[in-house]
Amino acid sequence: MHSPGGPAGAAQPGPGRGRGLVQALGSGHRAPAPLASLSLAYCSSLQLHQEPERRASGPKDPSPQPQGPSLLMLQALKELDLTACSKLTDASLTKVLQFPELRQLSLSLLPALTDKGLVAVASGCPSLEHLVLSHCSLLSDEGWAQAASSWPRLQHLNLASCGQLTEQTLDTIGQACKQLRTLDVAMCPRISMAAVRHFQAQLPQVTCVQSCFVGGADLTLTL
C-alpha cells in the first residue's frame, strides 16, 4: 500500500474523510478520473454497503431502493487499503469487493471478517498479488481451504496475529500459491516452528518468512 505521498491517481483520505468520499462516489456524479489506488485506512465509520430500503408505496413499486455508496464504479482500481475500517462486515465486503483486476488489498484489523468474507473476497478479487489480513482473528483453516485456490498469483501475504490459523493453512497456501515470495505469520501461536520449516521446503522460492513468536519462539527465515 502506498504511503500518503503516493503516486498520481491515488487517493488517501485520512480518518473521518472516508464517509464523505464514498458518499460522493454514490451520489451519481462521475469520478474526476479513474483511480488506480485508494486508501480508506482507519475510516472507522466507513460502511461500504447498506441494505436496500423499501418504499411505503403501492404495488407498482415493489422493488427495494438501494441506499448508500458503492465502490463498484471504480473498476480501474489496482490497490485498495481498508485497514482498520472496523464497521466492515462479511456482507458489505461480499457486495462491494468485486474487482477482477485488483492487485493489492489490505483488510488488516477488521474484527468482523470471517471465513465467509474471506471466500467472497477470493471470488471477487482473483488477481491479488499482495494481501494483508493481519489481526483478523476470526479467520480459520476452513476459510483458507476454500479461498486459497482463487489466488494463484499471490506473491506477498501477511497473516500476522491470525490466532486461529494452524499448519493446515500453511499446507493449503503452499499447494495453491506457487508464486508466493514473502509470508508473515508472526504472532500466530498455533503455527509451529516445524510447520514454518516444512512450508519453506515446499516453496523454496519464498525469500522471507516472518514468524516472530510462532509457537513461543522467534524466527525470521530470509534467503
Automatic annotation (TrEMBL):
Pfam families per UniProt: DUF7885 (PF25372)
Gene Ontology cellular component terms for the protein in this record: SCF ubiquitin ligase complex
Top-level taxon: Eukaryota
UniProt cross-references to PANTHER family, sorted A to Z: F-BOX AND LEUCINE-RICH REPEAT PROTEIN 9 (PTHR13318:SF169), PARTNER OF PAIRED, ISOFORM B-RELATED (PTHR13318)
Species this protein is from: Ailuropoda melanoleuca (Giant panda)
Gene3D superfamilies, sorted: Ribonuclease Inhibitor
InterPro entries membership: FBXL15_LRR, Leu-rich_rpt_Cys-con_subtyp, LRR_dom_sf
Protein name: F-box/LRR-repeat protein 15-like leucin rich repeat domain-containing protein
Coiled coil: none
Ranges for domain F-box/LRR-repeat protein 15-like leucin rich repeat: 113-220
GO process terms (BP): SCF-dependent proteasomal ubiquitin-dependent protein catabolic process
Renumbered residue ranges of the record's region Disordered: 1-27, 50-69
